[in-house]
Write the C-alpha cells for this entry.
Amino acid sequence: QVQLQESGGGSVQAGGSLRLSCAASVYTDSTYYMAWFRQGPGKEREAVARIDQYHRTTLDVTDYADSVRGRFTISKDGNVLHLQMNSLKPEDTAMYYCAAWGATYGGGWSNAREHGYWGPGTQVTVSS
C-alpha cells in the first residue's frame, strides 16, 4: 500500500509559477513509476507528466502531455515527486493528482488508472 499526499497548489495569475509536491509513504526508487494527472472543471482526468523508477524522464511525446511540454517539469527527490509549473495559463486550472504504480506493469499511462495509488489532489487555479 502506498499513500500519497500532494501539496503546493494555490491561486496564481496567468504567467505565474507554482511548484507541486507529492510525498510518498514508501520507498519508490526502482519500484514505482510516478506521475501527475489533472482534472479540470467538467473535464476528464488527463495525464500531465511521468517519471520512471530511475528518475528518468525525457522531453518526448511519451512523458509530457502536449499541452504542458516546455512549461512543466517533473522531478523526484527521494520519495517526493515535484511538478514545476511555469507560464501558467487559465486552462491549467484543475485538481492535480499524484499517482504511483508498480514498475513491473510498465510505464503506460493506463497502468496508473488500472493499478495505481492516488493522492487526494491539490487545487490549482489560474486567473487571466
Summary: The chain has a mean pLDDT of 90.
